[in-house]
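The aim of this short unit is practical: by the end, you should be able to scan a pair of folded records and say something sensible about each. We start with the first protein, listed as its amino acid sequence and then its structure tokens.
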Amino acid sequence: MSIRSKRDLEGLRMAGRIVRLALDAMQAHVRPGVTTNALNAIGAEVLARHGARSAPMLVYNCPAEILISVNDEIVHGLPSDRVIQEGDLVKLDVTVEKNGYMADAAVTVVVGPASEEKHALAACARRAFEAALKAARHGNRVYEIGRAVEREVRRSGFHVVSGLAGHGIGRSIHEEPSVPNEFDRRARQRLTEGLVITIEPMISAGTSEIVQDDDGWTIRTADGSLAAHYEHTLVITRSEPMLLTA
């Protein structure tokens, strides 16, 4: 969507704030011995306390409020009785709906002492987002965002995951435009003031190819390599983008 009024901006900011509170609450409890179900319950409680709903549940009938992916799981992992281990890469992905507005963000958490590669992968996803943010300006084309992500990821020796992208958001989870994480000349739409999108680098230490689990949700790397994900919802302006989920 594109923001048309002060009410739109206030509604999106409220949704973004709840996303941030849920992510912070869950991240504070990511440690060895905790189950992903327990993390989901923490996030769900934050949403309920603020009168918000899980957008994946609302729109896609997702069986869990929060999507939690571990290690080679890239995105859309379902919470379970899985126990988090030292050295795991845990991806927390929160999308909420509040009063008809939606916001979305994700973070990768490195659990306890872990390998240099795991720390480097998580840090690269964040750097790729920050590089893309500089390209997210009124008048630029969407493909400039993907170019910036791909350049940073390749420079770091990792790979952009194929077929997964950021997206427009606001009144629904997935709106136009699609925001690829690699240079794609087909993504020619101009970024315009007020446009609300997510930028979300999804990267791997190995292959760029993906597979989907039988649960119909979890997407993982085809070769079992580690993956990282970093995301914010933002508004395009005539200067620096406005982050709604920071």
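Turning to the second protein, read its sequence before its tokens, just as you did above.
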Amino acid sequence: MDSLASLALATEAPTPALLNRAPQGRNDYIISRKMTKHIWIMSVYMSFIVFFLVFQGENFIPEEEGYEPQVDGYIQAGRKFTLDGEPLWEPFEAKYGVSRHYTIVFTVFVFL
């Protein structure tokens, strides 16, 4: 909700003259070209990181020792199918609980 407001504050250099400036006109654009560029760059950057974690996270995020469904010491993938639609694993939620994969993805998304 506050992304556009924070980008507006972050892209304009703070100067003492800023407070003496006249208000924006009624028909002026709210989002400048510079803000639009920053929004696009950050959305591509964030999307890349989140998609990388969704599809490659199980290959490098370590799982705590003793958690049964770990694969070679790494977390179990949160998704149930590959990109081709093939089953990735048998559901194990009933016995072990859900995977931590999507919790990590969501946490990284919030921090971004």
